[in-house]
Amino acid sequence: MEDTVLIIDDEKKISSLLARIIELEGFKVLQAATGKEGLKILSSNQVMVVVCDVKLPDYNGVELIKEIKKISAFTEVINLTAFGTIQDGVTAMRNGAFDYITKGDDNDKIIPLLYKAMDKAKLGTRVFELEAKITKRYSFDAILGQSKQIKEAITLASRVASTDTTVLLLGETGTGKEVFAQAIHYESQRKQKPFIALNCSGFSPELLESELFGYKAGAFTGANKDKKGLLEEANGGTLFLDEIGEMNLDLQAKLLRVLESQTFIKVGSTTTNQVNVRILAATNRDLKAEADTGKFRLDLYYRLSVFNIQLPALRERKADIELLASHYLSEFVAKVNRTKLNMSNKLVKALTEHHWKGNVRELKNVIERLVILTDGDTLDISQLPPEFFTNEEPVNSFDLQTVEKQHIQKILNYTKGNKTETAKLLNIGLTTLYRKIEEYKI
Prior knowledge:
Helix 4 (86-94) links the parallel strand 4 and strand 5 (99-102). This protein has 442 residues and is α/β, with parallel strands linked by helices. It contains 18 helices and 16 strands. The mean pLDDT is 89. The longest helix is centred in the first third of the chain and has 28 residues, at 110-137. It has a five-stranded parallel β-sheet with strand order 2-1-3-4-5, with helices on both faces. The protein folds into three domains: 4-133, Response regulator (Rossmann fold, 3-Layer(aba) Sandwich), CATH 3.40.50; 144-312, P-loop containing nucleotide triphosphate hydrolases (Rossmann fold), CATH 3.40.50; 316-440, Helicase, Ruva Protein, domain 3 (Orthogonal Bundle). It has helices at residues 12-23, 35-44, 61-71, 86-94, 110-137, 148-161, 177-186, 205-213, 230-233, 249-261, 287-292, 298-304, 321-335, 345-353, 359-373, 400-414, 419-426, 430-440; strands spanning 4-8, 28-32, 49-53, 76-81, 99-102, 167-170, 195-199, 214-215, 227-228, 238-242, 263-265, 272-274, 278-283, 307-310, 342-343, 378-379.
């Protein structure tokens, strides 16, 4: 947005004089004689500050502020009047005016005021742009995938995002549970408030309680002053509890209280604290089975699982693997300032057929490694780590031909396509290997 000022005033001499003063400060100035004309200019130009007379032929300048803000929310408005009244000044400020000043004051007063209004408009614009970037980065649109499984998960998450309902995200490690939690938060009414994530498996039970609820000074050795817990830090926003299945039973009871009453007690305190926080949780465990065996509180399970979303494993959405790999390739190429890199057909095939026990996180790590190790302009299976070939998908058939085909493919991958070495490792003739490759269409 340019440093542009719009003057709306039907007194031509005053408007021209003011425009000259402002232009001498290096600002671009536009002029309008009526409110309607001013709004038209505002609709087709990027204006940072409007200097507007209160008495216009077609508008009251104080009321015009509302119309200006509808068109450009971060444009600041300075009202000018020949006969100022306290009531008009109060109304102008309520309507969003930056300031309300009387004509005839020293003209030098307008310039410092203009700079302040310009700074505020620029700050508001930058904050808005930053928030828009953050929202875009963490929106559901940023979750890549065209497969039926991922689309169903996104649809469910987007439906529940606008509510305050507790959500339980289920899925294997690396399937993107925190990514979904962030998207739910940034698509909710709480997006202007904090999103805080806590991995419950990363702390001892005592430390987890302190992190979650905070503590009072003197609660334990080393507690020299009061400390806010993450519940307080997330007040008004969202708290994401990853690996919720790792939380012990005593702490689960205290979390249940938060979910039911939005209250908690700090470690070492007897005072009840009130919060307004949405809880999202995630696990790679079967919490219902653990609840049935007493390893997880059944009442907490039902409170957490008001709305469950199952995230698919990467091997269940093979159609998305090439898309994801291409995305991470572009990301890492930019990160290390490399020229454009491509993936060979053999690599795409190997990635698509891989079992991906670590899911999307594992794929991301593999692509990053390939970008670092590749000297040419094409990523190939020759740069894949040895462990990649020992992590193939288990055989789902007792059929001998299926077993043989998968084993030959595995050894070919291991030898990076060297058929002579593959035949030697398989203890078969090279001719036999070629025949089987043709037979199994490897």
